[in-house]
Amino acid sequence: MTGTEARRRPTIYDVAEAAGVSKSLVSLVLRGSPSVSEARRTAVLDAMARLDYRPSQAAAALAGATTRTIGVVIDDYRNLWFVELLRGLQEGLAPHGLRIAVADHTLNAHVEAHPLDGFLSMRVDGLVIATEPTGAMRVPEGLPVVVAGHREGVVPGADVVANDDRLGARLATEHLVGLGHRGIGHLTGGGGAARLRAEGFAEAMAAAGLEPRTVAGDGATTEEDGYVAAVRLLDTAPETTAVFAANDTMAMGALAAAGERGRRVPQDLSVVGYDDSPIASTHLLQLTTVDSRNAEIGAVAAERLVARIGGSPAPETAVLLDPQLVVRGSTAAPRSTA
Amino acid sequence: MTGTEARRRPTIYDVAEAAGVSKSLVSLVLRGSPSVSEARRTAVLDAMARLDYRPSQAAAALAGATTRTIGVVIDDYRNLWFVELLRGLQEGLAPHGLRIAVADHTLNAHVEAHPLDGFLSMRVDGLVIATEPTGAMRVPEGLPVVVAGHREGVVPGADVVANDDRLGARLATEHLVGLGHRGIGHLTGGGGAARLRAEGFAEAMAAAGLEPRTVAGDGATTEEDGYVAAVRLLDTAPETTAVFAANDTMAMGALAAAGERGRRVPQDLSVVGYDDSPIASTHLLQLTTVDSRNAEIGAVAAERLVARIGGSPAPETAVLLDPQLVVRGSTAAPRSTA
DNA sequence: ATGAAAGCGCTAACAA
DNA sequence: TTGTTAGCGCTTTCAT
Question: Residues 28-67 of chain B: which lie with beta carbon within 7 Å of strand D?
Fold first, then answer.
């Protein structure tokens, strides 16, 4: 009796009827088949618009062999490094009609055990793992998977695309050495990338005949960790004139510690970060950092995915992109070259 | 002939057979029906584990009346205000077995016209619009929708949950007035929230008998805009001793401008932001700000959604949460109370 | 408490 | 170029 009851949502049947064609023709138009006459196509498109029709993704997924969507697993929305990755992925995937679905590891923890399960339930056509892969990540063989941004892939059959953290750390360190710094400290944290960066730091320091001093905060790589680590470093090794942090966030903490200790940046202390995240280019930080080329990582990941989706099984590949030093205002030659 | 060809993924049929029951029973177990004997249930669960079975979301969505997922539309992954919103949403939704799908406005722009279309195609059970609603947002009537964080809802039938921006701006301004500041400037930007905050600022200044000075950057609310606006303010009105920025990001820009002009914060210049975003609580900023209570906004949004999904149609509601001032280290009494 | 059977809205052969 | 016809893997009555 209520006139406002929600009408059943239109289906291809309704569209077909309204356009005076068969259901299959509608399906063909939907997927942009070239073998549909212009007249019919416009008729169908018209009917769709009139009825405010939306294709049912569920029905399409169920009937078809493919969902045309790639699942991206990220760690934490606050870690902005994935933003550029997504952009690169998106640009590489869109031309192939592939869409992206993003899932945060922590977010749906209660509903699904792991975002991976959600994506597998969804029958995604491919997966990008933008977190540190854990042993528990079992994916059905044959599903295209690329691990992005992390080299320690333990996902069987997955391609790996990442930046060369060790090289990046060397670039950062050599930049500081080149400026004349000798008391250079490194702020490290947990995780594989941090370890590789610490190794690169140690290598570059050794090559320059300098003693590498590496200090950690509370084990993670947050701003707080950077602050804590920097305080420790500056207090125990006051001769330090430059700091290389495992990432931009930690570098931010180092900046705070420097300010508190009355050290001006870059005059009294040089600071380098890693990632070239959005905060690095702010007026406030003007942080010299290492661009890990996340957009390119995304682009390469997209390429791999597309190749695997279309093609026959191929051996897994690993691509290591060369990071790039981005010099901004947080580094300078030390005051006195002692 | 190749032994490694990907086996067909198991379905309820396979599970049913392996467990020696009917398909329907498997379905019942899947959705936790209480009317299944313990013996059968464990048998089914066992079979699922053995076969590494994953229910097909597509099939479930197609057959069932509901998808148990809520679509959340956000603007830009870089704007971290949505992170807490998601947390609140998640906590409110998970107990009801509802999952969250997040879509960035800009991301799938090429594939789908609007994330909204994607969600409608997906047949979500509800929608959270965490962007400034535009006129083009037509959603099927009967679909639960809540606009979160923005008051200027033009989505018909949608509930609105937001913080009271005008009040928050008054709190921030009154805090500065209370500290003894008289030369207080406001950095504003584009968008509805910024406008409301500017109005609240003007109100509080008028109430204190002070002249409100409001300046914009390049029209947006980025760090760059904050920097530009603050430079303008400090250069044209050097008597300014306090700045209230439309958000934390702009405040960050103001901090940079202050530093450049040789103004120490908070001794020479007090700065207040808005949003209590993750950057505000860093050691580097220690920003006094206004907590817009995004987690609570998410919680209320979840509540509304759940009520609408379960219940009968109800008139649309609008909830305005009271924001809270968070005093940190970026504000202090002015040097000389002139 | 469990099973049988009819779709959900599409895609993908195949026919015409 | 267009129409016909089976399913895809589930949920959901309805029986039993």
Answer: 28, 30-31, 53-56, 59-60, 62-66
In this structure, are residues A148 and A128 in contact, taking their beta carbons and an 8 Å threshold?
yes
Give per-residue pLDDT as tens, A134-150: 877 788 888 999 999 98
Residue nearest to nucleotide C2 (CA to C1'): B25
**Alpha-helical regions (H) of A184-269:** 192-207, 223-236, 248-260
A123 vs B57: CB contact, 8 Å cut-off?
yes
- CATH number, residue A117: 3.40.50.2300
Instruction: Of A279, A305, A267, A269, give the one whose Cα is nearest residue A91.
Output: A305
In single-letter form, the type of residue at position B330 comes to: S
User: Residue B256 belongs to what H/E stretch?
Assistant: helix B248-260
Lowest-confidence pick of A157-171, A310-324, B204-218: A310-324
Q: What is the DSSP letter of B278?
A: G
- 296-335 of B, contacting A, C-beta below 8 A: 313
Please answer yes or no on whether B256 and A100 come within 8 Å at the CB atom. Answer: no
Task: Decide if A96 is inside a domain.
Answer: yes
pLDDT band for A336, please (50, 70, 90 cuts). low
Select from A78, A138, A142 the Cβ nearest to the Cβ of B80: A78
Shortest distance, CA B22 to any CA of chain A (angstroms): 21
Task: Give contacts of A140 with chain B, Cβ < 8 Å.
Answer: 6, 9
Helix or strand run (H / E) with residue A15: helix A12-19
Same domain, A245 and A255: yes
Which of the four pLDDT bands, split at 50, 70 and 90, describes residue B138?
A: confident
Q: What is the pLDDT of residue A333?
A: 97
What is the count of residue pairs from A and B with beta carbons less than 8 Å apart?
150
Instruction: Give the DSSP H/E element, type plus range, for residue B185.
Output: strand B184-188
CA distances from B20 to A96, A270, B13, B25 (A): 43, 69, 10, 10
**For chain A, what percent of residues have pLDDT higher than 70?**
95
Counting the structural domains of chain B, the total is 3
CB contact B267 to A (< 8 Å): no
Using the 8-state DSSP alphabet, how is residue A31 labeled?
A: T
Distance (Å, whole) CA B218 – CA B223? 11
Partner residue facing A256 (CB), from B5, B117, B284: B284
Two structure tokens written together for A293? 């080329």
Strands B289-291, B324-326: pairing kind: antiparallel
CB neighbour class for B37 (10 Å; exposed up to 12, middle 13-18, buried from 19)? exposed
Residue A336, in any domain of the structure: no
CA dihedral A233, A235, A238, A241 (to 10 degrees): 40
Return the number of other C-beta atoms located less than 10 Å from residue B154's C-beta.
13
Q: Does a structural domain hold residue B93?
A: yes
A150, A299: one domain: yes
Give just the sign of the alpha carbon dihedral B155, B157, B158, B163. Answer: positive
B9/A contact by beta carbon, under 8 A: yes
Nearest to A323 by CA among A90, A164, A147, A135: A164
* B123 and B192 within one domain: no
B247 closest CA partner among B294, B194, B201, B297? B194
- Structural domain boundaries, residue B124: 69-164+294-322
Query: Residue A12 to residues A34, B60, B116, B125: CA-CA distances in angstroms?
Result: 19, 20, 20, 21
Same domain for B232 and B205: yes
Q: CA separation (Å) from B311 to A338, B68, B190?
A: 75, 15, 38
Residue A110 confidence (pLDDT)? 59
Other CB atoms within a 10 A radius of the CB of residue B175 amount to 20
Q: SS3 of A40, please? A: helix
